[in-house]
Amino acid sequence: MEALRVLITRESGGDPAAPTVVLLPHTYQSAEYAPRLAVRLGAAYVASVSSATLDACGGLRFSRAILQARLRAEVRPKRRLVVATVQIGAFGGHEPVESPERVFEVGRPADVERHREREMLGREAAGAGGVDLPGAERIVTAGRGVGGPDEVSVAADLASALDAELGASRPVVDNGWLPREHQVGSSGHIVAPNLYVALGVSGSIQHLMGMSGSRVIVAINRDPEAPIFSVAHYGIVADLHDVAPALTRLLEARRSA
Amino acid sequence: MRIGVCIKQVPDTDSHLRIADSGREIDDSDLNWVISSCDLCALEEALVLAEAEVSRGEERPELVVFSLGPARVEEALRKALALGADRAVHLADEALQGGDALADGRALAAALAGENCDLVLTGAQSDDLGQAATPAVIAEILGVPYAWLVMAVELDSHKQSVRVVRELEGGMNEVLRLDLPAVLAIQAGINKPRFASLRGTLQARRKPLQLEGCSGVDAGLVGAAGAGTETESVTLPPAGAGGVVIEGASAEAAAEELLAHLEREAVL
User: Fold this and answer.
1) Span A161-177, pLDDT tens digits
2) Which domains does chain A have, with CATH numbers?
3) How many CA atoms lie less than 13 Å away from B184 in the CB half-sphere?
4) Most CB atoms within 10 A, among A175, A197, B94, B185?
5) Nearest CA to B180 among B212, B202, B155?
6) In what helix (H) or strand (E) does residue B105 lie, and over which residues does it extend?
7) B33 in A contact zone (CB under 8 Å)
8) Is the CB of residue B189 less than 8 Å from the CB of residue B171?
9) Contacts of B262 in chain A (CB under 8 A)
Protein backbone atom coordinates (compact mmCIF):
# COMPACT_ATOMS: atom_id res chain seq x y z
CA MET A 1 0.00 0.00 0.00
CA GLU A 2 2.80 2.42 0.89
CA ALA A 3 4.51 1.60 -2.42
CA LEU A 4 1.27 2.41 -4.26
CA ARG A 5 0.96 5.67 -2.36
CA VAL A 6 4.53 6.67 -3.26
CA LEU A 7 3.93 5.84 -6.91
CA ILE A 8 0.58 7.59 -7.17
CA THR A 9 1.69 10.78 -5.43
CA ARG A 10 4.81 10.91 -7.61
CA GLU A 11 2.64 10.45 -10.66
CA SER A 12 -0.06 12.92 -9.74
CA GLY A 13 2.17 15.56 -8.15
CA GLY A 14 1.76 18.82 -10.01
CA ASP A 15 1.40 17.23 -13.44
CA PRO A 16 -1.92 18.33 -14.99
CA ALA A 17 -2.01 15.13 -17.05
CA ALA A 18 -1.38 12.99 -13.97
CA PRO A 19 -3.80 10.20 -13.09
CA THR A 20 -6.86 11.18 -11.14
CA VAL A 21 -8.50 7.78 -10.84
CA VAL A 22 -6.94 4.73 -9.20
CA LEU A 23 -8.88 1.55 -9.97
CA LEU A 24 -8.49 -1.69 -8.01
CA PRO A 25 -10.49 -4.91 -8.26
CA HIS A 26 -13.01 -5.39 -5.44
CA THR A 27 -11.38 -8.60 -4.22
CA TYR A 28 -11.06 -9.73 -0.62
CA GLN A 29 -7.36 -8.76 -0.81
CA SER A 30 -7.44 -5.31 -2.42
CA ALA A 31 -10.74 -4.04 -1.01
CA GLU A 32 -9.21 -4.55 2.45
CA TYR A 33 -6.53 -1.89 1.97
CA ALA A 34 -8.12 0.31 -0.74
CA PRO A 35 -9.96 2.62 1.73
CA ARG A 36 -6.72 3.06 3.72
CA LEU A 37 -4.94 4.02 0.50
CA ALA A 38 -7.66 6.60 -0.24
CA VAL A 39 -7.22 8.17 3.21
CA ARG A 40 -3.44 8.25 2.80
CA LEU A 41 -3.78 9.94 -0.59
CA GLY A 42 -6.47 12.39 0.53
CA ALA A 43 -8.61 10.88 -2.23
CA ALA A 44 -12.32 10.19 -2.47
CA TYR A 45 -13.29 6.51 -2.17
CA VAL A 46 -16.01 4.57 -3.98
CA ALA A 47 -16.29 0.78 -3.51
CA SER A 48 -17.50 -2.00 -5.81
CA VAL A 49 -18.61 0.11 -8.76
CA SER A 50 -20.31 -1.59 -11.68
CA SER A 51 -19.97 1.21 -14.23
CA ALA A 52 -18.42 4.64 -14.70
CA THR A 53 -19.43 7.49 -16.99
CA LEU A 54 -18.21 11.00 -17.76
CA ASP A 55 -20.69 13.88 -17.70
CA ALA A 56 -20.67 16.80 -20.15
CA CYS A 57 -18.05 18.64 -18.07
CA GLY A 58 -15.77 15.64 -17.85
CA GLY A 59 -16.84 14.82 -14.29
CA LEU A 60 -16.87 11.19 -13.23
CA ARG A 61 -19.98 9.31 -12.10
CA PHE A 62 -19.84 5.85 -10.64
CA SER A 63 -22.79 3.49 -10.47
CA ARG A 64 -23.02 0.98 -7.63
CA ALA A 65 -25.57 -1.30 -6.00
CA ILE A 66 -26.92 -0.29 -2.58
CA LEU A 67 -29.34 -1.81 -0.05
CA GLN A 68 -28.46 -5.41 -0.97
CA ALA A 69 -28.75 -4.69 -4.72
CA ARG A 70 -32.35 -3.51 -4.39
CA LEU A 71 -31.39 -0.03 -5.59
CA ARG A 72 -28.60 1.61 -7.56
CA ALA A 73 -26.80 4.83 -6.65
CA GLU A 74 -24.94 7.24 -8.90
CA VAL A 75 -22.01 8.63 -6.94
CA ARG A 76 -19.99 11.72 -7.77
CA PRO A 77 -16.50 12.13 -6.31
CA LYS A 78 -15.87 15.58 -4.86
CA ARG A 79 -12.07 15.36 -4.95
CA ARG A 80 -9.60 15.49 -7.83
CA LEU A 81 -8.15 12.10 -6.95
CA VAL A 82 -10.44 9.07 -6.59
CA VAL A 83 -9.71 5.53 -5.45
CA ALA A 84 -12.42 3.12 -6.66
CA THR A 85 -12.77 -0.64 -6.51
CA VAL A 86 -14.50 -2.39 -9.40
CA GLN A 87 -17.06 -5.16 -8.93
CA ILE A 88 -15.65 -8.41 -10.30
CA GLY A 89 -17.42 -9.34 -13.53
CA ALA A 90 -18.88 -5.85 -14.03
CA PHE A 91 -16.87 -5.28 -17.19
CA GLY A 92 -16.16 -7.77 -19.95
CA GLY A 93 -12.44 -8.51 -20.12
CA HIS A 94 -10.40 -7.27 -23.03
CA GLU A 95 -7.23 -8.85 -24.31
CA PRO A 96 -4.38 -6.38 -23.87
CA VAL A 97 -3.64 -4.92 -27.29
CA GLU A 98 -0.16 -3.73 -26.45
CA SER A 99 2.12 -3.50 -23.48
CA PRO A 100 1.42 -0.65 -21.03
CA GLU A 101 2.86 2.68 -22.04
CA ARG A 102 4.82 3.15 -18.88
CA VAL A 103 5.91 0.67 -16.28
CA PHE A 104 7.21 2.05 -12.99
CA GLU A 105 9.53 0.38 -10.59
CA VAL A 106 9.23 1.31 -6.95
CA GLY A 107 11.90 0.46 -4.42
CA ARG A 108 10.93 -1.21 -1.19
CA PRO A 109 9.96 1.37 1.45
CA ALA A 110 12.72 1.71 4.03
CA ASP A 111 10.54 0.78 7.01
CA VAL A 112 9.06 -2.42 5.56
CA GLU A 113 11.15 -4.70 7.82
CA ARG A 114 10.03 -2.95 10.97
CA HIS A 115 6.39 -3.15 9.94
CA ARG A 116 5.36 -6.40 11.61
CA GLU A 117 2.24 -5.31 13.45
CA ARG A 118 0.22 -7.63 11.19
CA GLU A 119 1.70 -11.01 10.38
CA MET A 120 0.33 -13.86 8.28
CA LEU A 121 0.60 -17.17 10.10
CA GLY A 122 -0.89 -19.42 7.40
CA ARG A 123 -3.79 -20.39 5.19
CA GLU A 124 -6.42 -23.06 5.61
CA ALA A 125 -9.48 -24.44 3.81
CA ALA A 126 -12.71 -22.96 5.17
CA GLY A 127 -14.76 -26.17 5.16
CA ALA A 128 -14.67 -29.90 4.58
CA GLY A 129 -14.99 -31.41 1.10
CA GLY A 130 -17.52 -33.87 -0.30
CA VAL A 131 -19.56 -31.44 -2.39
CA ASP A 132 -18.55 -30.82 -6.00
CA LEU A 133 -20.30 -27.58 -6.89
CA PRO A 134 -17.81 -26.29 -9.51
CA GLY A 135 -18.02 -29.60 -11.40
CA ALA A 136 -21.82 -29.93 -11.24
CA GLU A 137 -23.98 -29.91 -14.39
CA ARG A 138 -27.03 -28.85 -12.39
CA ILE A 139 -27.32 -27.04 -9.04
CA VAL A 140 -30.35 -26.40 -6.82
CA THR A 141 -29.61 -23.70 -4.24
CA ALA A 142 -31.47 -23.15 -0.99
CA GLY A 143 -31.80 -19.51 0.05
CA ARG A 144 -33.02 -17.89 3.25
CA GLY A 145 -36.56 -18.14 1.88
CA VAL A 146 -36.66 -21.91 2.54
CA GLY A 147 -37.36 -20.83 6.10
CA GLY A 148 -35.33 -23.01 8.42
CA PRO A 149 -33.01 -25.99 8.92
CA ASP A 150 -35.86 -28.50 8.77
CA GLU A 151 -37.09 -27.10 5.48
CA VAL A 152 -33.83 -27.36 3.54
CA SER A 153 -35.15 -30.78 2.51
CA VAL A 154 -37.47 -29.10 0.00
CA ALA A 155 -34.33 -28.05 -1.92
CA ALA A 156 -32.52 -31.35 -1.31
CA ASP A 157 -35.49 -33.32 -2.67
CA LEU A 158 -35.62 -31.23 -5.85
CA ALA A 159 -31.82 -31.54 -6.21
CA SER A 160 -32.07 -35.30 -6.00
CA ALA A 161 -34.96 -35.43 -8.52
CA LEU A 162 -32.89 -33.31 -10.94
CA ASP A 163 -29.70 -35.26 -10.22
CA ALA A 164 -28.21 -31.93 -9.12
CA GLU A 165 -25.77 -30.82 -6.42
CA LEU A 166 -27.23 -28.92 -3.46
CA GLY A 167 -26.04 -25.32 -3.08
CA ALA A 168 -26.71 -22.77 -0.36
CA SER A 169 -26.74 -18.99 -0.13
CA ARG A 170 -24.67 -17.26 2.51
CA PRO A 171 -27.48 -16.71 5.07
CA VAL A 172 -28.32 -20.42 4.93
CA VAL A 173 -24.71 -21.30 5.74
CA ASP A 174 -24.34 -18.54 8.34
CA ASN A 175 -27.45 -19.85 10.11
CA GLY A 176 -26.00 -23.35 10.14
CA TRP A 177 -28.77 -24.87 7.99
CA LEU A 178 -26.15 -26.31 5.60
CA PRO A 179 -22.35 -26.68 5.93
CA ARG A 180 -20.09 -24.06 4.34
CA GLU A 181 -18.92 -26.32 1.48
CA HIS A 182 -22.39 -25.87 -0.07
CA GLN A 183 -22.00 -22.10 -0.31
CA VAL A 184 -22.34 -20.43 -3.71
CA GLY A 185 -21.04 -16.88 -4.10
CA SER A 186 -17.85 -14.88 -4.09
CA SER A 187 -16.91 -16.13 -0.63
CA GLY A 188 -17.88 -19.71 -1.50
CA HIS A 189 -17.86 -21.41 -4.88
CA ILE A 190 -18.04 -19.65 -8.24
CA VAL A 191 -20.22 -21.91 -10.40
CA ALA A 192 -21.52 -21.97 -13.98
CA PRO A 193 -23.63 -25.13 -14.43
CA ASN A 194 -26.03 -25.80 -17.30
CA LEU A 195 -28.98 -25.39 -14.96
CA TYR A 196 -29.12 -23.29 -11.79
CA VAL A 197 -32.31 -23.32 -9.72
CA ALA A 198 -32.46 -20.69 -6.95
CA LEU A 199 -35.09 -21.44 -4.29
CA GLY A 200 -35.86 -18.52 -2.00
CA VAL A 201 -32.56 -16.80 -2.85
CA SER A 202 -32.88 -13.00 -2.82
CA GLY A 203 -29.67 -12.55 -4.82
CA SER A 204 -27.02 -10.45 -3.08
CA ILE A 205 -24.22 -9.06 -5.26
CA GLN A 206 -21.90 -11.71 -3.81
CA HIS A 207 -24.33 -14.48 -4.72
CA LEU A 208 -24.93 -13.16 -8.24
CA MET A 209 -21.16 -12.97 -8.77
CA GLY A 210 -20.94 -16.64 -7.93
CA MET A 211 -23.60 -17.98 -10.31
CA SER A 212 -24.64 -15.47 -12.99
CA GLY A 213 -22.51 -17.30 -15.58
CA SER A 214 -24.83 -20.33 -15.43
CA ARG A 215 -26.42 -21.27 -18.79
CA VAL A 216 -30.06 -21.48 -17.64
CA ILE A 217 -31.07 -19.77 -14.39
CA VAL A 218 -34.43 -20.44 -12.71
CA ALA A 219 -35.54 -18.34 -9.75
CA ILE A 220 -38.47 -19.17 -7.49
CA ASN A 221 -39.16 -16.49 -4.90
CA ARG A 222 -42.21 -14.90 -3.32
CA ASP A 223 -40.70 -11.40 -3.53
CA PRO A 224 -41.08 -9.99 -7.08
CA GLU A 225 -38.44 -7.35 -6.22
CA ALA A 226 -35.76 -9.90 -5.33
CA PRO A 227 -32.57 -9.05 -7.29
CA ILE A 228 -32.20 -12.72 -8.32
CA PHE A 229 -34.91 -12.08 -10.94
CA SER A 230 -32.57 -9.64 -12.71
CA VAL A 231 -30.33 -12.54 -13.79
CA ALA A 232 -32.96 -15.30 -14.07
CA HIS A 233 -33.99 -16.69 -17.47
CA TYR A 234 -37.14 -18.19 -15.95
CA GLY A 235 -38.80 -16.67 -12.92
CA ILE A 236 -41.71 -17.89 -10.84
CA VAL A 237 -43.09 -15.43 -8.28
CA ALA A 238 -44.64 -17.88 -5.85
CA ASP A 239 -44.07 -19.72 -2.60
CA LEU A 240 -41.21 -22.16 -3.19
CA HIS A 241 -42.85 -24.55 -0.73
CA ASP A 242 -45.67 -24.99 -3.25
CA VAL A 243 -43.72 -24.97 -6.51
CA ALA A 244 -40.59 -26.96 -5.58
CA PRO A 245 -42.49 -30.04 -4.30
CA ALA A 246 -44.69 -29.89 -7.43
CA LEU A 247 -41.55 -29.89 -9.59
CA THR A 248 -40.10 -32.78 -7.59
CA ARG A 249 -43.32 -34.82 -8.00
CA LEU A 250 -43.43 -34.20 -11.77
CA LEU A 251 -39.77 -35.15 -12.22
CA GLU A 252 -40.17 -38.32 -10.15
CA ALA A 253 -43.30 -39.29 -12.08
CA ARG A 254 -41.37 -38.89 -15.35
CA ARG A 255 -38.49 -40.93 -14.08
CA SER A 256 -40.70 -43.87 -13.10
CA ALA A 257 -42.75 -43.60 -16.32
CA MET B 1 -9.04 -3.64 28.78
CA ARG B 2 -11.60 -1.74 26.73
CA ILE B 3 -13.31 -3.00 23.58
CA GLY B 4 -15.05 -0.51 21.29
CA VAL B 5 -17.84 -1.70 19.01
CA CYS B 6 -19.06 0.52 16.16
CA ILE B 7 -22.61 -0.11 14.98
CA LYS B 8 -24.66 1.44 12.19
CA GLN B 9 -28.42 1.77 12.15
CA VAL B 10 -29.76 0.84 8.69
CA PRO B 11 -33.17 0.38 7.07
CA ASP B 12 -34.46 -3.17 7.51
CA THR B 13 -33.78 -4.69 4.08
CA ASP B 14 -37.09 -6.52 4.26
CA SER B 15 -38.99 -3.24 4.49
CA HIS B 16 -40.46 -1.77 1.32
CA LEU B 17 -38.01 0.77 -0.10
CA ARG B 18 -39.28 3.88 -1.84
CA ILE B 19 -37.16 6.52 -3.51
CA ALA B 20 -37.62 10.01 -2.05
CA ASP B 21 -39.00 12.83 -4.20
CA SER B 22 -35.51 14.36 -4.40
CA GLY B 23 -34.36 11.21 -6.22
CA ARG B 24 -31.15 11.30 -4.20
CA GLU B 25 -32.02 9.03 -1.28
CA ILE B 26 -34.62 6.60 -0.06
CA ASP B 27 -37.80 7.87 1.54
CA ASP B 28 -37.19 7.37 5.27
CA SER B 29 -40.65 8.38 6.50
CA ASP B 30 -41.93 4.82 6.85
CA LEU B 31 -38.90 2.63 7.44
CA ASN B 32 -38.10 0.04 10.05
CA TRP B 33 -34.59 0.72 11.40
CA VAL B 34 -32.33 -2.05 12.70
CA ILE B 35 -28.67 -2.61 13.61
CA SER B 36 -26.76 -3.68 10.49
CA SER B 37 -26.38 -7.48 10.58
CA CYS B 38 -22.56 -7.69 10.59
CA ASP B 39 -22.42 -5.05 13.33
CA LEU B 40 -24.65 -7.26 15.49
CA CYS B 41 -22.13 -10.08 14.91
CA ALA B 42 -19.31 -7.69 15.96
CA LEU B 43 -21.16 -6.88 19.19
CA GLU B 44 -21.80 -10.58 19.83
CA GLU B 45 -18.10 -11.32 19.27
CA ALA B 46 -17.15 -8.59 21.77
CA LEU B 47 -19.55 -10.11 24.33
CA VAL B 48 -18.06 -13.57 23.73
CA LEU B 49 -14.49 -12.21 24.14
CA ALA B 50 -15.49 -10.47 27.38
CA GLU B 51 -17.10 -13.65 28.72
CA ALA B 52 -13.99 -15.67 27.77
CA GLU B 53 -11.82 -13.27 29.76
CA VAL B 54 -14.08 -13.68 32.80
CA SER B 55 -14.00 -17.46 32.55
CA ARG B 56 -10.16 -17.28 32.45
CA GLY B 57 -10.32 -15.47 35.79
CA GLU B 58 -9.42 -12.13 34.23
CA GLU B 59 -11.16 -8.82 34.69
CA ARG B 60 -14.10 -8.37 32.30
CA PRO B 61 -13.16 -5.91 29.53
CA GLU B 62 -15.38 -2.85 29.33
CA LEU B 63 -17.55 -2.83 26.18
CA VAL B 64 -18.30 0.62 24.75
CA VAL B 65 -20.59 0.86 21.75
CA PHE B 66 -20.38 3.80 19.29
CA SER B 67 -22.79 4.96 16.62
CA LEU B 68 -22.98 8.00 14.36
CA GLY B 69 -26.37 9.29 13.24
CA PRO B 70 -29.45 11.34 14.08
CA ALA B 71 -31.71 11.00 17.14
CA ARG B 72 -33.24 7.69 15.96
CA VAL B 73 -29.82 6.01 16.49
CA GLU B 74 -30.41 6.06 20.27
CA GLU B 75 -32.75 3.10 19.81
CA ALA B 76 -29.93 1.04 18.23
CA LEU B 77 -27.55 2.01 21.04
CA ARG B 78 -30.14 1.08 23.73
CA LYS B 79 -30.52 -2.29 22.04
CA ALA B 80 -26.75 -2.80 22.14
CA LEU B 81 -26.81 -1.93 25.86
CA ALA B 82 -29.67 -4.39 26.34
CA LEU B 83 -27.55 -7.08 24.68
CA GLY B 84 -24.74 -6.49 27.18
CA ALA B 85 -22.60 -3.48 26.25
CA ASP B 86 -21.62 -1.37 29.27
CA ARG B 87 -21.74 2.15 27.85
CA ALA B 88 -22.80 3.89 24.65
CA VAL B 89 -21.45 6.92 22.79
CA HIS B 90 -23.79 8.62 20.32
CA LEU B 91 -22.12 10.85 17.72
CA ALA B 92 -25.24 12.93 17.27
CA ASP B 93 -23.80 16.39 16.59
CA GLU B 94 -25.39 18.05 13.57
CA ALA B 95 -21.94 18.83 12.09
CA LEU B 96 -21.13 15.10 11.94
CA GLN B 97 -24.17 14.11 9.87
CA GLY B 98 -24.37 13.67 6.11
CA GLY B 99 -20.86 12.32 5.64
CA ASP B 100 -19.56 9.36 3.64
CA ALA B 101 -17.29 6.55 4.82
CA LEU B 102 -14.23 8.84 4.92
CA ALA B 103 -15.99 11.47 7.03
CA ASP B 104 -17.78 8.98 9.29
CA GLY B 105 -14.61 6.95 9.80
CA ARG B 106 -12.76 10.11 10.84
CA ALA B 107 -15.46 11.09 13.34
CA LEU B 108 -15.65 7.57 14.80
CA ALA B 109 -11.84 7.31 15.00
CA ALA B 110 -11.73 10.53 17.04
CA ALA B 111 -14.37 9.22 19.44
CA LEU B 112 -12.61 5.82 19.73
CA ALA B 113 -9.25 7.52 20.37
CA GLY B 114 -10.90 9.56 23.13
CA GLU B 115 -11.88 6.32 24.87
CA ASN B 116 -8.49 4.59 24.38
CA CYS B 117 -9.95 1.34 23.06
CA ASP B 118 -7.53 -1.61 22.95
CA LEU B 119 -9.59 -3.42 20.37
CA VAL B 120 -12.22 -2.07 17.96
CA LEU B 121 -14.78 -4.41 16.42
CA THR B 122 -17.29 -3.51 13.75
CA GLY B 123 -19.16 -5.18 10.89
CA ALA B 124 -17.40 -6.05 7.61
CA GLN B 125 -19.92 -4.05 5.59
CA SER B 126 -23.19 -2.26 6.20
CA ASP B 127 -26.47 -3.64 4.91
CA ASP B 128 -27.34 -0.30 3.29
CA LEU B 129 -24.32 1.16 1.46
CA GLY B 130 -22.08 -1.90 1.74
CA GLN B 131 -18.82 -0.14 0.87
CA ALA B 132 -16.81 -1.97 3.56
CA ALA B 133 -14.81 1.24 3.93
CA THR B 134 -15.54 2.77 7.35
CA PRO B 135 -13.62 0.17 9.43
CA ALA B 136 -10.52 0.53 7.21
CA VAL B 137 -10.74 4.32 7.45
CA ILE B 138 -10.92 4.08 11.25
CA ALA B 139 -7.82 1.84 11.30
CA GLU B 140 -5.91 4.17 8.97
CA ILE B 141 -6.71 7.27 11.02
CA LEU B 142 -5.87 5.54 14.29
CA GLY B 143 -2.71 4.20 12.61
CA VAL B 144 -3.30 0.62 13.79
CA PRO B 145 -3.38 -2.80 12.08
CA TYR B 146 -6.61 -3.92 10.43
CA ALA B 147 -8.24 -7.12 9.22
CA TRP B 148 -11.42 -7.36 7.11
CA LEU B 149 -13.87 -10.31 6.88
CA VAL B 150 -12.86 -11.78 10.22
CA MET B 151 -14.30 -15.26 10.95
CA ALA B 152 -12.58 -16.00 14.30
CA VAL B 153 -10.94 -13.89 17.04
CA GLU B 154 -8.75 -15.05 19.89
CA LEU B 155 -7.05 -12.74 22.40
CA ASP B 156 -3.57 -13.76 23.53
CA SER B 157 -3.17 -14.24 27.26
CA HIS B 158 -1.13 -11.03 27.66
CA LYS B 159 -3.68 -8.99 25.68
CA GLN B 160 -0.86 -7.75 23.45
CA SER B 161 -2.20 -9.22 20.21
CA VAL B 162 -5.11 -11.06 18.59
CA ARG B 163 -5.07 -14.13 16.40
CA VAL B 164 -7.72 -13.85 13.70
CA VAL B 165 -8.98 -16.01 10.86
CA ARG B 166 -10.08 -14.00 7.87
CA GLU B 167 -11.98 -15.06 4.77
CA LEU B 168 -10.43 -15.16 1.30
CA GLU B 169 -12.16 -16.03 -1.97
CA GLY B 170 -12.74 -19.59 -3.08
CA GLY B 171 -13.30 -21.20 0.31
CA MET B 172 -9.89 -20.35 1.79
CA ASN B 173 -9.10 -18.60 5.06
CA GLU B 174 -6.02 -16.69 6.16
CA VAL B 175 -4.69 -16.86 9.74
CA LEU B 176 -3.18 -13.60 11.00
CA ARG B 177 -1.67 -12.15 14.14
CA LEU B 178 -2.32 -8.44 14.79
CA ASP B 179 -0.72 -6.31 17.50
CA LEU B 180 -3.15 -4.41 19.72
CA PRO B 181 -4.65 -1.91 19.43
CA ALA B 182 -6.25 -3.12 16.23
CA VAL B 183 -9.47 -2.77 14.23
CA LEU B 184 -11.30 -5.94 13.17
CA ALA B 185 -14.18 -5.95 10.68
CA ILE B 186 -16.35 -8.95 11.52
CA GLN B 187 -17.95 -11.06 8.78
CA ALA B 188 -21.49 -12.42 9.01
CA GLY B 189 -21.60 -16.04 10.15
CA ILE B 190 -18.80 -15.79 12.75
CA ASN B 191 -21.43 -16.31 15.47
CA LYS B 192 -25.16 -16.25 16.11
CA PRO B 193 -26.09 -12.96 17.79
CA ARG B 194 -28.09 -13.44 21.00
CA PHE B 195 -31.48 -11.89 21.68
CA ALA B 196 -31.93 -9.26 24.37
CA SER B 197 -33.49 -10.51 27.58
CA LEU B 198 -36.20 -8.57 29.36
CA ARG B 199 -33.74 -8.03 32.21
CA GLY B 200 -31.16 -6.68 29.75
CA THR B 201 -33.71 -4.31 28.24
CA LEU B 202 -34.64 -2.98 31.67
CA GLN B 203 -30.98 -2.58 32.69
CA ALA B 204 -30.20 -0.78 29.42
CA ARG B 205 -32.42 2.13 30.43
CA ARG B 206 -30.05 2.91 33.30
CA LYS B 207 -26.77 2.37 31.47
CA PRO B 208 -24.83 5.52 30.48
CA LEU B 209 -25.45 6.89 26.98
CA GLN B 210 -23.26 9.85 26.24
CA LEU B 211 -23.75 12.39 23.46
CA GLU B 212 -20.52 13.16 21.68
CA GLY B 213 -19.84 16.48 19.97
CA CYS B 214 -17.19 17.02 17.36
CA SER B 215 -14.40 18.27 19.59
CA GLY B 216 -11.00 17.00 18.56
CA VAL B 217 -11.84 16.79 14.87
CA ASP B 218 -11.48 19.40 12.16
CA ALA B 219 -15.07 20.34 11.23
CA GLY B 220 -14.05 20.44 7.56
CA LEU B 221 -13.12 16.74 7.62
CA VAL B 222 -16.36 15.31 9.03
CA GLY B 223 -20.04 15.34 8.10
CA ALA B 224 -21.17 16.56 4.69
CA ALA B 225 -18.21 18.97 4.51
CA GLY B 226 -15.70 16.14 4.91
CA ALA B 227 -17.32 13.71 2.50
CA GLY B 228 -15.27 12.79 -0.55
CA THR B 229 -18.36 11.70 -2.47
CA GLU B 230 -21.93 12.80 -3.05
CA THR B 231 -24.87 10.65 -4.12
CA GLU B 232 -26.38 12.21 -7.24
CA SER B 233 -29.31 9.87 -7.68
CA VAL B 234 -30.86 6.64 -6.46
CA THR B 235 -32.76 4.51 -8.95
CA LEU B 236 -34.36 1.10 -9.28
CA PRO B 237 -32.00 -1.41 -10.88
CA PRO B 238 -32.56 -2.11 -14.58
CA ALA B 239 -35.30 -4.65 -15.19
CA GLY B 240 -34.43 -8.28 -15.68
CA ALA B 241 -32.42 -9.54 -18.62
CA GLY B 242 -35.55 -10.33 -20.59
CA GLY B 243 -36.31 -13.44 -18.59
CA VAL B 244 -39.57 -15.36 -18.92
CA VAL B 245 -41.99 -14.89 -16.04
CA ILE B 246 -44.06 -18.00 -15.44
CA GLU B 247 -47.47 -17.31 -13.97
CA GLY B 248 -49.22 -20.63 -13.68
CA ALA B 249 -52.70 -20.75 -12.24
CA SER B 250 -51.40 -23.20 -9.64
CA ALA B 251 -48.06 -24.50 -8.42
CA GLU B 252 -48.57 -27.63 -10.55
CA ALA B 253 -49.31 -25.57 -13.66
CA ALA B 254 -46.24 -23.36 -13.06
CA ALA B 255 -44.10 -26.46 -12.52
CA GLU B 256 -45.41 -28.06 -15.75
CA GLU B 257 -44.70 -24.93 -17.73
CA LEU B 258 -41.19 -24.58 -16.28
CA LEU B 259 -40.34 -28.20 -17.10
CA ALA B 260 -41.51 -27.66 -20.69
CA HIS B 261 -39.11 -24.70 -20.98
CA LEU B 262 -36.26 -26.65 -19.41
CA GLU B 263 -36.84 -29.51 -21.80
CA ARG B 264 -36.57 -27.12 -24.75
CA GLU B 265 -33.36 -25.76 -23.25
CA ALA B 266 -32.07 -29.37 -23.06
CA VAL B 267 -30.90 -29.05 -19.46
CA LEU B 268 -32.87 -31.91 -17.95
Assistant:
1) 999 999 999 999 999 99
2) 2-86 (3.40.50.620), 138-256 (3.40.50.1220)
3) 36
4) A197
5) B155
6) helix B101-114
7) no
8) no
9) 195, 216, 218, 234
